[in-house]
Structure formats: C-alpha cells, structure tokens
Amino acid sequence: MAAKQPGVTVRAPAKVNLCLGVGPVQGDGYHPLATVFHAVDLTDTVTVRPSKRWECTVTGPYADRVPTGGSNLAMRVAQRLADECFEAGPVSMTIDKSIPVAGGMAGGSADAAAAIIAIDQLFDLQLTKLDHQELATDIGADVPFILAGGTALGTGRGDQLAPVLTTGRYEWVFALQDDGLSTPAVYAEFDRLNKGRKVPLPQAPEEMIAALRSGDPRELAGALSNDLQEAAISLMPKLQKTIDTGLAEGALGAIVSGSGPTVAFLCADRAAALDLMVGLTASGVADDVVSAGGPHPGARVVSNIRTV
Ligand SMILES: C[C@@](CO)(OP(=O)(O)O)[C@H](O)COP(=O)(O)OP(=O)(O)OC[C@H]1O[C@@H](n2ccc(N)nc2=O)[C@H](O)[C@@H]1O
Ligand SMILES: Nc1ncnc2c1ncn2[C@@H]1O[C@H](COP(=O)(O)OP(=O)(O)O)[C@@H](O)[C@H]1O
C-alpha cells in the first residue's frame, strides 16, 4: 500500500429537495421517492492524508455533534476502501464542517461522497464512475446525488438519478435549528400519520421540472413541495412558525429541507436573501441563519497537497 501524494482535499455540497414525493413504505423499510435534489454552495471540506493509524478530526461549528469513529460516514468509506483495495490503507482525516448535522441537508452524505473521491485519488485506486456510484448507494440513499451535484431527479430510494435542465441561479436562505431530526424517525412519523390512508406511488414532478427550465424563482416557489414536511412539523411543531415568519418577511416560498428541521426559503435575488436573513435573525425563529446559492457542482477535488 502506497499513497501517491501527501494529501488530498475534496469539497462537497449540501442539498435541498425542491420537491419530495414519498410513496408507501416497502418490505425493505425504504420508501419509494420522486424527488428533485438541488445542490447549494454550503459545503464541507474533507482532507485525507496517509497515516500509520486511523484518525478523524472534525472542525467547525458543528464538530461536537459528529462521530469520529467507524460510524462517521466518511470514515466508513475510507475503511471500506482500505478493506477492499490492496493499494489503500489507514488515513488521517480532517472534516471541516459547515453543513448542519441532522438538518435534512445531507451533511454526512456530503462527507461520504467527498471521502470516495479523496481516497480514490490519494491511493490512485483508479475506480470507475460506476464503482463510485455503487459504493455511494451502499453508504446512503443521498450519497449518489452529492457525487453528481447540480439539480437532478431522484427515484427509487433517491439513488436513481437523472439530471434536470435548469436556467439561472437561485438564492436561498436556510433557517437552522440546534436540535436535529433523525431521518428514520421522520419517515416513521410519515408512516404513523398516513396509517389507514392509501399512500399513492410518487409521481414525476412535471410542474417542478417546467419551473426549473423557466428560470423564474416565482414559478419555482409555487412548485416547492415536501411530503415529509407534515411529519417533520409534527415532531418539531415550532417549524410552522419559522415557515410563517419567513414568508411574512418576504420569502417567495418556503419548505422543510428533506427530513428537516432546516427550513429553506427561496428569495427573489441576493439582496432579498440578505434582507430575509436580517428579518429571520431578529425574529428569533431559528438558532442560526445562512444563505447559499444553487445549483452547485457535486464533490470535487480542491487541492492535492504537495508538502506535508
Ligand atoms: C430524507 C432524505 C431526502 O433526500 O434526506 P435527508 O433529508 O435525511 O438528508 C433521504 O431520503 C434520506 O437519505 P439518507 O439519509 O441517505 O438515507 P439512508 O441513510 O439511506 O437511510 C436512513 C433511513 O431512512 C429511511 N429511508 C431513507 C430513504 C428512503 N427512500 N426511504 C426511507 O425510508 C429508512 O428508514 C432508512 O433506514
Ligand atoms: N460525517 C458526518 N457528518 C454528520 N453526521 C454524521 C457524519 N457521519 C455520521 N453522522 C451521523 O449521521 C446523523 C445524520 O447526519 P446528517 O447527514 O447531517 O443528517 P441528515 O440525514 O438530516 O442530512 C448524525 O446525527 C450523525 O450521528
């Protein structure tokens, strides 16, 4: 086993589901989805260096909420590749975390996607795109999209992807909560709320796809939808006030991001986003407020470290 360079740094984006259609739970415990993923320029940065022993350090505002052992999704990727590939071995990993933890923005998936690219390059494994996708799908349903980035239709568990044509750039404000929501708990709440109802299979989101092609943020705002929103609000009722406040403060549209509890607000432009950040911060309906634009590329190498 020999690393080809002293270190590799990869950056990976957060996502918001612009629409999230959820079908009835299947025998494997997963729900069939029809979702449009959208990557935004709120990113985590993962650096790997060859090491004699496994190490993981997390920095940034959410560091204390992220595991550093084998349950860290990025470490899981690195350890899997070390087990499976003769050329790969232990690494010292640093995760600089800006994506909220358990926020419905795929932060753990972003780190896992970054680790796939970083370990491949560090040990020159020469994995194919298909190898990347298969490993990503195995780690988690959101990981394949984070590798791809941009805006994409996700079906199956959310891991079957097709790119969606978009025009222009969209400005978002995200209202964050200190407490996270567990993804399995939100899906379980969706099942509980729908007990006795016939949940249809999710349909292709044609209105959303047309809105993205138009490039008009007002049209996009009208097409936002999330079948998990009711469940997320049921588990965290204060999110309804966050949504109402952001809309009253001028957001074009609002949606719980994935399984929540982050709320995503779509704004007319950058100036409107900055105004909304001020309004949301002053109202106290979020523990933190950040802005980001999309679409953004998927996980990418930002530097090959040449000196140790
Ligand atoms: C809800 C979504 C929307 O994009 O993301 P988040 O908002 O959590 O980031 C995803 O479906 C989350 O994807 P991800 O967090 O990668 O899920 P996984 O680790 O594969 O699965 C965790 C658990 O979520 C549930 N799950 C996940 C995906 C899916 N299509 N149906 C499900 O029921 C299952 O209970 C599963 O055991
Ligand atoms: N690299 C990682 N970053 C964040 N959380 C991680 C990571 N690896 C494992 N986890 C675990 O996964 C859980 C969900 O994390 P995250 O991906 O941020 O949430 P979500 O699925 O809501 O987007 C966390 O509570 C944490 O225990």
UniProtKB/TrEMBL annotation:
<dbReference type="GO" id="GO:0016114">
    <property type="term" value="P:terpenoid biosynthetic process"/>
</dbReference>
<dbReference type="Pfam" id="PF08544">
    <property type="entry name" value="GHMP_kinases_C"/>
</dbReference>
<protein>
    <recommendedName>
        <fullName>4-diphosphocytidyl-2-C-methyl-D-erythritol kinase</fullName>
        <ecNumber>2.7.1.148</ecNumber>
    </recommendedName>
</protein>
<dbReference type="InterPro" id="IPR020568">
    <property type="entry name" value="Ribosomal_Su5_D2-typ_SF"/>
</dbReference>
<feature type="active site">
    <location>
        <position position="15"/>
    </location>
</feature>
<comment type="pathway">
    <text>Isoprenoid biosynthesis; isopentenyl diphosphate biosynthesis via DXP pathway; isopentenyl diphosphate from 1-deoxy-D-xylulose 5-phosphate: step 3/6.</text>
</comment>
<comment type="function">
    <text>Catalyzes the phosphorylation of the position 2 hydroxy group of 4-diphosphocytidyl-2C-methyl-D-erythritol.</text>
</comment>
<dbReference type="InterPro" id="IPR036554">
    <property type="entry name" value="GHMP_kinase_C_sf"/>
</dbReference>
<feature type="domain" description="GHMP kinase C-terminal">
    <location>
        <begin position="208"/>
        <end position="273"/>
    </location>
</feature>
<dbReference type="GO" id="GO:0005524">
    <property type="term" value="F:ATP binding"/>
</dbReference>
<dbReference type="InterPro" id="IPR014721">
    <property type="entry name" value="Ribsml_uS5_D2-typ_fold_subgr"/>
</dbReference>
<dbReference type="InterPro" id="IPR004424">
    <property type="entry name" value="IspE"/>
</dbReference>
<dbReference type="InterPro" id="IPR013750">
    <property type="entry name" value="GHMP_kinase_C_dom"/>
</dbReference>
<keyword id="KW-0808">Transferase</keyword>
<comment type="similarity">
    <text>Belongs to the GHMP kinase family. IspE subfamily.</text>
</comment>
<feature type="binding site">
    <location>
        <begin position="100"/>
        <end position="110"/>
    </location>
    <ligand>
        <name>ATP</name>
    </ligand>
</feature>
<dbReference type="GO" id="GO:0019288">
    <property type="term" value="P:isopentenyl diphosphate biosynthetic process, methylerythritol 4-phosphate pathway"/>
</dbReference>
<keyword id="KW-0418">Kinase</keyword>
<dbReference type="InterPro" id="IPR006204">
    <property type="entry name" value="GHMP_kinase_N_dom"/>
</dbReference>
<keyword id="KW-0067">ATP-binding</keyword>
<keyword id="KW-0414">Isoprene biosynthesis</keyword>
<dbReference type="Pfam" id="PF00288">
    <property type="entry name" value="GHMP_kinases_N"/>
</dbReference>
<keyword id="KW-0547">Nucleotide-binding</keyword>
<dbReference type="GO" id="GO:0050515">
    <property type="term" value="F:4-(cytidine 5'-diphospho)-2-C-methyl-D-erythritol kinase activity"/>
</dbReference>
<feature type="domain" description="GHMP kinase N-terminal">
    <location>
        <begin position="72"/>
        <end position="150"/>
    </location>
</feature>
<feature type="active site">
    <location>
        <position position="142"/>
    </location>
</feature>
